[in-house]
Amino acid sequence: MASFTTQARVKRALGIPSAVTTHDTFIDELLTVADAEIIAYCGMAGLTETAVVEKYDIPDTYSNQFTLRNFPVSSITYVTSSGATLSESSYYLESRSGTLKLSNAGRFFPEGRQKVVVSYTYGYSTAPADLAHAATIITASHFNRTRHSGMQSEGVGGYRYRVSDQAVPSAAQSLLAKYKRLFPKEAI
User: Fold this and answer.
1) Rounded CA gap, 179 and 38, in Å?
2) Angle 7-14/24-42 helices, nearest 10 degrees?
3) What's the CA gap between 143 and 161, in Å, rounded?
4) What is the per-residue DSSP string for 59-113?
5) How far is residue 57's CA from residue 115's CA, in Å, rounded to a whole number?
6) Does the structure show a pLDDT above 90 at 22?
7) What value, to the nearest 5°, has the Cα angle with vertex 61 and ends 57 and 65?
8) How does pLDDT run across 49-62, given as a tens digit for each residue?
9) Which residue in 3, 99, 170, 183 could disulfide with 94, CB within 3.0 to 4.6 Å?
10) Which residues, 6+ apart, have CB-to-CB distance to 186 below 8 Å?
11) What pLDDT is recorded for position 79?
12) Residue 10: burial class (beta carbons within 10 Å; 0-12, 13-18, 19+)
């Protein structure tokens, strides 16, 4: 299965030598958990690059935009409106929200059910390095929290240890911020 990060990267971050295989199965399970958390946190449809063709309903005669169902969009193959293929210069994509907009503000999509068809690709062929690092941080965090499950703090003399209770650590949140889907006001 594709993953944002690898077992080797997580073991390196945790300081576990590659020859030590005691935790490999558990780390592999946590890789899946980290992927699911990133997908949910960022509003992604999935990790793996996937091509789709979708039909969209246009609710009124004054719509010049709509939000694609899947995110992040990596490319648009074609857009048809009432059976006519639109030129690439007649529309654009707002990548942070996945909103397809007509370039000319005076043009509108035709009202009706399934009047617009979009063929596009979403997901990643290769995860960007910062997403991979965020997945490594999340996986390592889960590994450490699980080993100290339920512990809020520990101390002996001057030594103190406290496990964070954040689902997505703040270091990972800052890396994921630019990948988080922003929903346009009209979509809420």
Assistant:
1) 9
2) 100
3) 15
4) -STT--EEE-SSSSEEEEEEEEETTEEPPGGGEEEETTTTEEEESSTT--PPPEE
5) 6
6) yes
7) 60
8) 999 999 999 999 99
9) 99
10) none
11) 98
12) buried
Token pair in block for residue 82: 């009432």
| Token pair belonging to 94 | 């707002």
Distance CA 72, CA 75 (A): 9
Residues in the chain: 188
Q: What is the mean pLDDT of residues 147-176?
A: 74
pLDDT value for 145: 82
Per residue in 86-134, pLDDT tens?
A: 999 999 999 989 999 999 988 999 999 999 999 999 999 898 999 999 9
Q: Provide the sign of the torsion angle of the four alpha carbons 63, 64, 70, 76, taken in this order.
A: positive
